[in-house]
Amino acid sequence: DTGVSQNPRHKITKRGQNVTFRCDPISEHNRLYWYRQTLGQGPEFLTYFQNEAQLEKSRLLSDRFSAERPKGSFSTLEIQRTEQGDSAMYLCASSQRQGAYNEQFFGPGTRLTVL
Amino acid sequence: SQQGEEDPQALSIQEGENATMNCSYKTSINNLQWYRQNSGRGLVHLILIRSNEREKHSGRLRVTLDTSKKSSSLLITASRAADTASYFCATDGAIEYGNKLVFGAGTILRVKS
């Protein structure tokens, strides 16, 4: 399977704990995006990387959130001191091209539940 | 915040009928993309239409784009029960808006067999 993969698929944690999610993009894609989706809403942009450089961050990405893509391949998203409001589906997407041809392919998502 | 709105919020049709969903947006775009999402799953890319295109087809899907009205429509012909899902439009803005996709809230489509 050469699609975008995400791990874990589900994560249940207690408030105040730290969690880390991983995304493996399609291998030849140099752009990687993180989105968050809450129930009944469309995904909202969090951040994106071109290769290893983090080029844009949303205001949704508070200081408790950090994302890395150390070698320009897989990426991790860490949430520190989780809050119940962090409960959501976290989606990763990758793309190869930009501008008018920026077709993004999404992984299955990681569903986070904060108790 | 969401870029725009999908209309209707929910649509229920019989198998074999056509389904039309509309999307409006607010800013200049490079392209507009439509995605499908089955309950609790990731998004599946359906079709991309560039800002200089007016209509695009893919199998049973037909997408139109009217940049003067900042709107798009997705038509699914001869619907099947397996088309039951949420459908989202997403805009890829002009460079001053970054490279992110901005999604609407989606249309929930139910196809009854």
Structure description:
- The complex is a heterodimer of chains A (115) and B (113).
- Chain A is built from no helices and eleven strands.
- Chain A has strands at 5-7, 10-13, 19-24, 31-37, 44-50, 53-57, 65-68, 75-79, 88-95, 105-106, 110-114.
- In chain A, the strands form two sheets. In chain A, strands 2, 4, 5, 6, 9, 10 and 11 form a seven-stranded mixed sheet that branches. A four-stranded antiparallel sheet of chain A has the order 1-3-8-7, with no helix packed on it.
- Chain B is mostly beta strands.
- Chain B is globular and about 45 Å long.
- The relative contact order of chain B is 0.35.
- At the A-B interface, strand 4, strand 5, strand 9 and strand 10 of A face strand 4, strand 5, strand 9 and strand 10 of B.
Number of helices of chain A: 0
SSE string of chain B, helices as H and strands as E: EEEEEEEEEEE
Q: What oligomeric state best describes the polypeptide chains here?
A: heterodimer
Class from secondary-structure proportions of chain B: mainly beta
The secondary-structure element order of chain A is EEEEEEEEEEE
How big is the Rg of chain A?
Answer: 13 Å
Structural category of chain A is mainly beta
DSSP summary, beta strand count of chain B:
11
pLDDT averaged over residues of chain A: 92
